[in-house]
Specification:
CATH class of the largest domain: Alpha Beta
Low-confidence stretches: none
Structural class: alpha/beta
CATH architecture of the largest domain: 3-Layer(aba) Sandwich
Number of helices: 11
Mean pLDDT: 95
Number of domains: 2
Distance between the termini: 22 Å
Strand content: 15-25%
Strand order of the largest sheet: 2-1-3-12-11-4-5-10-8-9
Shape: globular
Number of strands: 12
């Protein structure tokens, strides 16, 4: 397997290093071929090349089995015309990584932010290439304008094509889980855009008679996530709704740092932690690399599924199991979840567990 590694900003280099250590240990244990090439994006690229993301990096990524992308400090970048390109958005749009897959689950040995007795095991399928995000919903220019200093307008784009393909990905995933999909929308207010999304999801549902489909208004969905998260299996949503709900679900499950995430199309996958770059703690060896480690596990599992490679499928499952075994021990938890060890030590603990599993 050939992977392109892009550490990026803030705690990105630290959590990526821990993830690579775990992946390398798993590959060596199973005698699987693993090749890692590195390049720069984010502030390092801005310093050296005048832009946070060079076009050649995007083109180069197409030649790999997958990409490991660290966290980015997009809010601190200069304006786009001064080189501050949104790295995540550029990957999603430039490589058409339309499916942002974000699982969230509770663990019986870790405290959650749910009410006592409640549990969660769900996946949010977020469409990632259009919607209300103005930096990715136009062929040229941005989907936001200011006709006057006191007026700002934003354009939302929803297409049948993008809605149907994220819906299909959601139904295909549900077939491997509990066979239930919940479509998240606000069609009572956004009659045309959310109406089109909901129509597309229902159309795709006809190809999956084994899967139960229901739908919820996005505001009601937030309440149900808090009150009865067990009702959810796979949620499918447009870009903004999926972004907000996935952060809520992960935090309810215990911490935003405990869930993996990947971006994928039908040919390429990119691992990226669910959380941000946390520049305030960068370089201090206190970050929790769990999300990045699990994201890398999702990536190699996706490649294994695409290539029907049982070895990489086992690596995915073994890394996830090793993370749980390490988290189950209070002595090997990072400080954000009540422990005391650092990012490097946590990565070493998971890597050691994988190597001896």
């Amino acid at each position: 397997m050939r992977l392109l590694v892009l550490p990026c900003d803030g705690i990105g280099p630290e959590i990526v290093e821990a993830s690579v250590q775990v992946l390398t240990a798993a590959a060596q244990r199973h005698r699987l071929e693993l090749s890692l090439d590195y390049d720069s994006v984010g502030f390092d690229s801005l310093r050296d090349h005048g832009t946070t993301l060079r076009d050649e990096v995007l083109q180069r990524a197409r030649g790999y089995d997958g990409v490991i992308l660290g966290t980015q400090s997009h809010a601190d970048y200069p304006a786009p015309e001064k080189g501050g390109r949104n790295v995540s958005a550029a990957f999603r749009v430039g490589l058409d990584l339309y499916a942002n897959v974000r699982p969230a689950r509770t663990r019986p040995f870790l405290p959650s932010n749910l009410r006592e007795g409640r549990s969660m095991d769900l996946v949010i399928m977020r469409e990632a290439t259009e919607g209300f995000y103005p930096d990715r919903n136009m062929t040229r220019g941005w989907g936001e304008v200011m006709p006057s200093p006191d007026m700002a307008l934003s354009t939302r784009k929803i297409t049948r094509h993008s809605s149907e393909r994220i819906a299909r990905a959601a139904f295909e995933l549900a077939m491997t889980r509990r066979k239930k999909v919940t479509a998240i929308h606000k069609a009572n207010s956004f009659h045309m855009t959310d109406g089109l999304f909901l129509e597309a999801v229902r159309h795709v549902a006809g190809d999956f008679p084994q899967v139960q489909l229901d739908d919820l208004l996005v505001d009601a969905a937030t309440a149900h996530l808090v009150r009865e998260p067990e009702r959810f299996d796979v949620l499918v949503a447009t870009n903004l709704y999926g972004d907000i709900l996935s952060d809520l679900a992960s935090e309810l499950s215990g911490s935003l740092g405990l869930a993996g995430s990947m971006m994928a199309n039908d040919e390429l996958c990119c691992a990226q932690a669910q959380h941000g770059s946390a520049p305030a703690i960068a370089g201090q060896d206190v970050a929790n690399p769990t999300s990045m480690i699990l994201s890398v596990a999702m990536l190699v599992g996706w490649v294994g599924d695409q290539q029907r490679h049982a070895g990489w499928q086992r690596v995915r499952d073994e890394i996830a199991a090793a993370v749980d075994r390490v988290l189950a021990n209070p002595a090997t938890r990072t400080r954000d979840i009540g422990g005391h060890i650092g990012c490097r030590a946590f990565g070493q603990a998971v890597a050691g567990t994988v190597a001896t599993a």
